[in-house]
């Protein structure tokens, strides 16, 4: 047998012997740790002192936030550490083994409960998990998975809203003098965080509190909605309909489409109210400003439809019916402001009294005419002329109202949560 073959056999024997020895020491260590161990007792020699537990939360992703039910679903992993004074050994006695992994059901575990859970109230645990035990008694437990949290959604500034949800862990059954919980850091760990397409993560924070002498570890998550989807699919169609609605006053009264156009826009706004209400919670305390805005726009659309009905009624009045003098004066003022290009309408606007082409005598006569217009001139205006001029007035009024209200609601929604 060659020297190289003997060397290889010796190396295999040494390595195999070392592994066998390590496995044997691991078995002996496991037996030694479990002998006389009582997992029902808190792992401190002085039972009058508390067990200090640190929790570090690794936020993996934001799965979903349901505004209607007020539920936030996140995927996270908890790194939980504490010291077990019954699980300490000398590494030199066990082939320098500094740590060992055993099933979590074999040692004392803090029963952590999520107090803000939205469904079943159960402890955070998984029977298949292992815990890592270090030779100085440090225990590392890493449960994780989907965590659902009950929140109080505030959709006042939808779709520019910001939500803050709080995850509160407590060791139910132990007072804070027995078990003390505290976050490991001031913020959540985001090393493995994956972004969400609907919500952006603004900030995270941690803290401690107590509830009926029970220690609480609190993890706060603040998220803000990415508004692009709702701007394109909700806000833009609403604003487009708003600016189209007053154009009904440009349609000829003889077209027969004015009332139908107004009612179609009115019904479209009711559909948008239904769509928005389906994605918002039924909460009267924090109703969305856009809901109020659409309601105002809906009322304005109803007013436009009603005005069109009255306008059509005036337009089709008999020519023999006289136009009231007060209405003629009002329409004359509007006509002079709008300066319509039609000859039969421009004739209603009085000539400029300050014109250089008139004499003082004529100027005095014109001033008298303005104060007491002749009956003949008043009767020249027909109901159709009144409708043509007031249509322009109504369109201008509604466009000004829509523009001011649109700017106000956009500024309010975009700046309200800042």
Description:
This protein is α+β, with helices and mostly antiparallel strands and 418 residues long. It folds into 2 domains: 23-225, Distorted Sandwich (Acetylcholine Binding Protein, Chain: A), CATH 2.70.170; 229-338 and 380-415, Up-down Bundle (Methane Monooxygenase Hydroxylase, Chain G, domain 1), CATH 1.20.58. The protein contains 9 helices and 11 strands. The N and C termini lie far apart (83 Å). 21% of the residues are buried. Mean pLDDT is 81; it is low at 3-21, 340-346, 351-361 and 367-379. Keywords: Membrane, Receptor, Signal, Transmembrane, Transmembrane helix. Residues 29-225 form the Neurotransmitter-gated ion-channel ligand-binding domain. Residues 1-20 form the signal peptide.
Query: Helix proportion of residues, in percent?
Result: 25-40%
Percent strand: 15-25%
Q: What is the helix tally?
A: 9
- Gross morphology: rod-shaped
Query: What is the CATH topology assignment of the largest domain?
Result: Acetylcholine Binding Protein, Chain: A
Largest sheet data: 7 strands, mixed
Q: Report the CATH superfamily of the largest domain.
A: Neurotransmitter-gated ion-channel ligand-binding domain
Uncertain runs: 3-21, 340-346, 351-361, 367-379
Written as H for each helix and E for each strand, in order along the chain, the element string is HEEEEEEEEEEEHHHHHHHH
Number of domains: 2
Give the termini separation: 83 Å
Mean pLDDT across residues = 81
| Computed Rg | 40 Å
Secondary-structure class: alpha+beta
């Amino acid at each position: 047998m060659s020297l190289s073959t003997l060397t290889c056999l010796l190396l295999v024997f040494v390595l195999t012997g070392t592994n066998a020895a390590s496995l044997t020491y691991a078995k002996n260590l496991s037996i030694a740790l479990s002998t006389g161990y009582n997992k029902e007792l808190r792992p401190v020699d002085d039972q009058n002192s508390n067990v200090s537990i640190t929790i570090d939360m690794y936020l993996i992703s934001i799965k979903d936030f349901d505004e209607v039910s007020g539920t936030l679903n996140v995927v996270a992993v908890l790194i939980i550490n504490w010291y077990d004074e019954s699980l300490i050994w000398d590494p030199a006695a066990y082939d320098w083994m500094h740590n060992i992994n055993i099933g979590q059901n074999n040692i004392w575990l803090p029963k952590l409960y999520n107090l803000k859970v939205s469904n079943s109230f159960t402890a955070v645990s998984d029977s298949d998990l292992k815990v890592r035990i270090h030779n100085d008694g440090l225990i590392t437990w890493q449960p994780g998975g989907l965590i659902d949290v009950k929140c109080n959604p505030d959709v006042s500034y939808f779709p520019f809203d910001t939500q803050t949800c709080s995850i509160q862990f407590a060791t139910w059954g132990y007072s804070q003098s027995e078990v003390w919980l505290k976050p490991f850091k001031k913020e959540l760990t985001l090393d493995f965080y994956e972004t969400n397409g609907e919500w952006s993560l603004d900030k995270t924070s941690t803290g401690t509190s107590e509830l009926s002498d029970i220690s609480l570890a609190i993890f706060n998550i603040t998220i803000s909605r990415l508004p692009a989807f709702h701007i394109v699919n909700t806000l833009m169609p609403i604003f487009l309909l708003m600016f189209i609605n007053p154009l009904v006053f440009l349609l000829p009264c003889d077209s027969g489409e004015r009332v139908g156009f107004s009612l179609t826009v009115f019904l479209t706004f009711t559909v948008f109210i239904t769509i928005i209400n389906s994605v918002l919670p039924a909460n009267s305390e924090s109703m969305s400003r856009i809901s109020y805005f659409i309601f105002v726009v809906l009322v304005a659309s109803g007013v436009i439809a009603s005005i069109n009905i009255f306008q059509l009624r005036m337009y089709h009045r008999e020519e023999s019916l006289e136009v009231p003098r007060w209405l003629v004066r009002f329409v004359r003022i509007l006509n002079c402001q709008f300066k319509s290009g039609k000859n039969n309408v421009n004739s209603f606007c009085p000539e400029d009294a300050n014109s250089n082409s008139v004499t003082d005598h004529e100027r005095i006569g014109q001033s008298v005419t303005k104060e007491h217009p002749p009956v003949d001139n008043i009767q020249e205006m027909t109901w159709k002329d009144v409708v043509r001029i007031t249509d322009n007035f109504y369109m201008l009024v509604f466009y000004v109202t829509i523009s001011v209200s649109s700017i106000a609601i956009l500024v309010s929604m975009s700046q309200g949560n800042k």
